[in-house]
Write a structure and sequence with these properties.
The chain is an alpha+beta fold and about 100 residues long. It has a four-stranded mixed beta sheet with strand order 1-2-4-3, with no helix packed on it. The chain starts with 10 loop residues before the first helix and ends in a 7-residue tail after the last helix.
Length: about 100
């Protein structure tokens, strides 16, 4: 590829094009059995070059405090001061997160 091996449709390319910005988006994913889902995500594209780090929570309904922590982190990170990029997916399993909690004995 003429751009150093990075596809213009890749996440890496997108993060590099939006340095210094915070973007809320939906990752659209599909499975082998044709189920489609959308995961809410925040991309914090640092103003300076650096590594990309992803943080995920909300795989189980009991992870509400982790979800709240990531939402707070999302508000507090300033992309103008960040080196690299941060991908935050606060709720990985939307179905279980929004279902009523099960009561076990």
């Amino acid at each position: 590829m003429p751009d150093g091996g990075v596809s213009k449709k890749s996440l890496k390319f997108y993060l590099e094009q939006h340095q210094g910005k915070k973007i809320d988006t939906i990752f659209r994913i599909g499975t082998s059995d044709s189920i489609k889902a959308g995961l809410p995500a925040t991309l914090i594209c640092g103003r300076f070059k650096g590594p990309t780090f992803a943080i995920v929570s909300g795989a189980r309904p009991s992870e509400q405090s982790a979800v709240q922590s990531l939402l707070k982190l999302r508000r507090e990170i300033n992309p103008e001061k960040l080196a690299g990029s941060l991908i935050i997916i606060p709720i990985m399993n939307l179905d279980s997160f929004f279902l009523p909690a099960k009561i076990t004995a």
